[in-house]
Amino acid sequence: MNKLLKNIEEILCGGFLIVMITVVIANVFMRYLFNSSIVWAEEVATICFVWAVFIGASATYKNKLDVGINALVEKTSPHIKKLIYKAVAVLMLIINSYIFYISIVFTSISFEKPMAVLGISSAVINSSLIVGFGFMTMHSIKFLIQEFKEARS
């Protein structure tokens, strides 16, 4: 169970990608074999794609696989390097927390707007922002705590 929770973002992202690919392939077969398409396929594929992007971004951030250019940082002294990493951790917490907050506001506004084909609330797709940046905010807190723990040792 612990391993499941540790990899929840990767599992969710993979699930959304599987659903998206399955729906798109099914829609292609329907077009070519029966000359008819699945009406809701495009919206479901879009929803799954957006969820996979934001949860995948969080998984990338969690595993520190995001792109960073630290050539200048590596040329500084160990003391300055630790300060820079702490400052970056604080800055990332502020940015991710702010975007998480804005995502909540944005999603709450979108509850009234239905999607074109499915007729469900646009909040279904916009809530991917809340989940993705919520995870990133949690990881930012974890990274900040790690930076300060490493400073003590």
Write the layout of secondary structure elements.
Layout: H1 2-6, H2 8-34, H3 41-62, H4 71-74, H5 78-109, H6 123-152
Helix pairs in contact: 2-3, 3-6, 5-6
Distance between the termini: 32 Å
- Can you count the helices? 6
What is the ordering of alpha helices and beta strands? HHHHHH
Structural class: mainly alpha
Mean pLDDT: 93
Computed over alpha carbons, the radius of gyration is: 20 Å
Percent helix, as a range, is over 70%
Q: Count the strands?
A: 0
From the spread of the alpha carbons, the general shape counts as elongated
Structural account:
This protein is mainly α and 153 residues long. The chain has one domain (2-152). It has six helices and no strands. The radius of gyration is 20 Å and the shape is elongated. The model has no long low-confidence stretch (mean pLDDT 93).
